Amino acid sequence: MNIETKIRNIRFIGELSKFRIAPPGLVFNCLKACLDDFSHHNIDVACNLLETCGRFLYRSPETTICMANMLEILMRLKNVKNLDPRHITLVENAYYLCKPPERSARVSKVRPPLHRVHVHRGKYGQIHLIASLTAGLSRYHDDFSVAVVDEVLEEIRVGLELNDYGMQQRRIAHAFPGGVV
């Protein structure tokens, strides 16, 4: 059989396993057969199978251990065999698709309250909400409402000085809260 037919069939088996029509054992048997003779077409077939249903099987509680073992065998074979760069890339892509590397959570910037109030994004109907929010925050931060008004006036002044066409809509929004001139 040619490679396109093999890949089409193995992707079909992978999709069937994701819908729990084909049992996971069938996928593991196909993967084991490819890993037993890890060369040429079998590398392509194994990688396509892992790309299709590998992550699903790795994340499923009942097949996590078996899939982790298969992925470990795959990486050992990649390191032992003398593969061409295309096959190395295929194997690494399939492996990291199934088992992405651990990374730390993103740390978001903590912005001061003044920078969290974007007046220029508000609509005319929201002016009373922005004013209410500003008044509410000024109870806890004494200079907040003054700082908001100062910031709006400063934005208008800078916008007029720069006269940047891309900032025109923002200038209008600052000067005329409804955006209507």
From TrEMBL:
Segments forming a coiled coil: none
Recorded GO MF terms: RNA binding
Pfam families to which the protein is assigned, alphabetical: MIF4G
Protein's GO biological process: nuclear-transcribed mRNA catabolic process, nonsense-mediated decay
InterPro entries: ARM-type_fold (IPR016024), MIF4G-like_typ-3 (IPR003890), Nmd2/UPF2 (IPR039762)
GO CC, any one term: exon-exon junction complex
Domain MIF4G: 1-101, 119-174
Protein name: MIF4G domain-containing protein
